Amino acid sequence: MKPTGRAAASVAMRRHAVDMALSPEQVQRAASVRERLLASAATVLVTTGVHALTLDAVARDAKVSKGGLLHHFSTKTELLQALLEDSYARCLSKIDELAASDPDAYGRFTRAYIRASLASDLGNAQATVVMALLLDPALRAEWLQRVESLLQKDLNEDDPALAKILRLAADGLWLSDAFTLHTISATERAELEQRLVELTRFRPPS
Hints:
By secondary structure, this protein is mainly α. Helix content is about 75%, strand content about 0%. It contains 10 helices and no strands. α2 (about 25-50) crosses α3, α3 crosses α4 (about 65-70) and α5 crosses α6. The longest helix has 25 residues, at about 25-50. The radius of gyration is 20 Å and the shape is elongated.
């Protein structure tokens, strides 16, 4: 179980004390190790399934000692929590980047959401989120709170119903990609994405 209350505070204090004693180079190396552990956790989840995710498997994939892993994540729940936060932050950053570069305000967020959801440079981020939520249902409530802000942006669009339909369609497409639910060629996928983006510019009759 994940430490709570005094136990969690004690764990955090011990880690903080250790980190305070590190040199800048050691802090950088520690951050690099943490990134490798998260990447390995995502790899194990997506390639071998939820039941294969163990701290030993992640440490082995990352080529990190079990003790090194436990310095960053003392439990599997803690690892999943960090993995979820990392995946969400990457997706949100991509959405913000795409929205900021879009000069057309009409449907801007929905276009950014679609493009970010289907962006190849996010790798396994979305699939990792789904796998993590399947593995630990207790994380779902927190995940729903996190995406509430994204849903609210849908409601702020000029046509909120269409925005939500398009967002859900994009979710379905990346889920299909992640878990091979349908056979879709690269050309077909590009066409589907383009059609979704085009629909964000649809203006209902006044």
